[in-house]
Amino acid sequence: MAYNKGSAGSSGCILFFVLMFFVYEGIDYLIHRDEINAKELKEKSDFINYWKQSNINFFSKFKCNSSLNYNESKTIKIDKFYIFDTNQEYECNIKEFHQTQIHFKKLDLLNYKSEEIKNANVLIWVKKVPGEQVGSYGDGSRAIRLNAEINFINISENSIYKKINVPCVGEPLQEIYKKNHSPSKIFYFGSLPYERISEIIENEIEKK
Predict the structure, then answer these.
(1) Which of these, 13, 48, 82, 179, could form a disulfide with 117 (CB 3.0-4.6 Å)?
(2) In 3D, which of 207, 57, 191, 71 has the Cα closest to residue 126?
């Protein structure tokens, strides 16, 4: 059998460079280990301070749509609420949730907003969902405005007792740029209408 020295030599070189890469990465990690660990600890601490440990624990067991019932016959009075929102496409993970901005005209109503879910009786989940088509483009693509779907959740019963939809704000793209012969598609647009969301929550709080 012929022995290919060229092939063996090139394989040896590749193996050498791969080995040197891992040696370099290992040395670099050892040199910067304390710095890397400190950065990771700070990121974890900042995340906990922002979300609160009790909320992190709650959302770790929260199964989003699959765990919630819908029962509008059991409306409850809001004593304290906690609010968060999600984009149109999301994973059921706190890292993809956002703390929703609230702008109450009556500042005393901010006392109803809780920083921790464990102190609230209502969880308000604002979801971006597809709304109405408001325009189209020459290739057949469509512009669809997103809605803010405001879900009022009875925490003790894990059920949605009210849903309110309001249009998101903003305008669609005037023109779209795509490669030739690419298929038509849907272009979603819209930002959450924080003032309108705040008004709706105000009204729910003040209901007798």
Answers:
(1) 82
(2) 191
